[in-house]
Amino acid sequence: MKPQQLKKLLVYLSKDYTIFGPEKVGDRLLIREIKDAKKFKLVNKKPFYSHKEFLIPSSQTLFNYDKNKLLKPRIKRKQVLIGIPVYDLKAFTLLHEVFEKDVYFQEIIRNIILIGHSPVPEETTFYEDYEEHILEHLRFDIFLEFKPKGEFRVFTGSEDGQRILEKVGIKDYEHVEYAGAVPEEGLAITEKIKQKLVKSSKNTKIWKELNKRCIVCGKCVISCPTCFCFNIDDEPAFEKNQGSRIRDWGVCFYEEFSEVAGGEKFLKTIGDRIYNWYDHKFVRIPNEYTLPGCVGCGRCIEVCPANIDLRKTFRDLKKLLKSKKL
Amino acid sequence: MKNIYQTKLAKIIDIKKEAEDIKLFTFKFVNKKDQTRLDFTPGQYFILSVLGFGEAPFAYSSSPEEKDYFQVCIQEKGTLTSGLFKLKKGDKVGIRGPYGNGWPKEIFSKRNLLLVGGGLGLFPLRPLIRSVVLAPQKFKKVQIFYGSRCPELLLFKKEYKLWQRYTDLCLTCDRRSRGWKGRVGVITTLFDKVKLVEDPVVLVCGPPIMYKFVIQKLKELKFKDKDVYLSLERRMYCGVGTCQHCVVGGKYVCKDGPVFSYKEIKEMPQAI
Fold first, then answer.
1. pLDDT value, residue B270
2. B78 contacts in chain A (CB < 8 Å)
């Protein structure tokens, strides 16, 4: 597919959909509304944040209430998300599994067209296993593989994707049938090793050291494309007996995350909470969904003001294992 | 697709003051079908919502045999309860659930039971006691150890006479105080003072500190880990294992618990 055809595709989509894609803002690549599809150029870089906000909004109204009536808002926004590197697609495929029975997520995803693209090797990104066959385990509508001279090899992953390309007259695409999120061979061996490392490290000094360094800013959680913890709270309106029940992103690093009425907290130290974050990504998610909870985008490393680096944590864990302290 | 966050309306049909900041609420679903279909296991919980104050999980305090209403005993402690305590008879709340796993009902008819409750820990044990009272034929021998800091804080006092007809109710207060003629000492002292019912399954609910001492005592007495069950309290929002607030040792208290066998708890670091 030639670059002009991508423009044609976006111009076509912009008639029915609002398009969100990466745009350079200062020195950051941020996801913004693409108002002029003709001017959009898909750059070969990772957006600073993922498109997570569009799938699980940081603040989502579950209900508007009036006296005792709960009214669920209808979600009808038709959106195209473009500029999703393959690891973010992987994260969204996981979110699909996690929120399989969540009516809000399902309503949003039904009206979204996902346009993914191949990853770009970057310093912090440790996602290495990009191969064609992984596409069958990812949820997407259209997938663009970067080729020289601004050209793309095009894949479709859904009927919507096929229909759209046909409408625009793009014929040189290959269709990939979605074969479920989990590959036949199950969890990759590299993930199984990480699971074992984290699981057996609960009482090691690694978490105590991170306890000293982490400043509990929560940036890693916000920037992580797979972090999905949430809180649910009511926000009263000015009118009496009216308001909304809101689901907000939760940050498991915050002290009050495990606090119950009366003040008791169960994840007491920062170290406890960091361990819980690793345990969720590398132990619990693989157990529950047979998928990795970390897709290797490297954003948590880039945003951390305390220079905490997940790759170093794993190097340290491996060292502990070798020295038989694990 | 079913919306898991949709609540069902229930009406407050009675409020009884149990202690200074503790009330027993009796609810009835507004929709008759919701009420007749209500079924749960003692020890299970539901999520209660008061519009404007949010939601919070509470264990049922009435028994599944009580078909026309359900009850919950609550201490005013957090945001939601401050809203709930302002409500009056006839006001409505939202309910979703039941959620989680309750006490091991498969053993109720097969084994003697020893219920160990400390303070507010009696709340999730009361449905079981109510079941024993209302359907004694379903149970073998039931013994209750209930401890409180002081006599004023002993809950459900008016029901003890009835409970004593069907169970061996043993009370203790931590400290000596005027007018209290019963046993004095922390709950573990009951194990030395009272003859235990034969080979029971032990169901424990109380503050975290109590668990440590009760478990220690049960170990001394050579109880098997699989014969001891505990109910855990954690922060919860979703009730279905997604929001992550209630996680402990790789398990979700909201859907894998709140009742766990001590055998499971041993594998869950920082559970108690």
1. 83
2. 260-262
* Burial class (CB within 10 angstroms; exposed 0-12, middle 13-18, buried 19+) of B89: exposed
B110 interfaces chain A, CB cutoff of 8 Å: no
- DSSP conformational letter for A281: I
- Return the CATH number of the domain spanning residue range B8-99: 2.40.30.10
Helices (H), chain B: 32-37, 79-84, 126-134, 160-166, 190-193, 208-220, 253-256, 262-265
- Are A5 and A170 a contacting pair, CB within 8 Å? yes
Per-residue HEC secondary structure of B22-64 comes to EEEEEEEECCHHHHHHCCCCCCCEEEEEECCCEEEEEECCCCC
Q: Tell the burial category of A106 from Cβ atoms under 10 Å away from its Cβ (0-12, 13-18, 19+).
A: middle
Q: Which CATH architecture has domain B105-231?
A: 3-Layer(aba) Sandwich (3.40)
Report the gap between the CA of A2 and the closest CA in chain B (Å). 41
Torsion of CA A131, A136, A140, A142, to 10 degrees: 70
For residue B124, cis peptide bond before it (omega within 30 degrees of 0): no
Q: How confident is the model at residue A118 (pLDDT cuts 50, 70, 90)?
A: confident
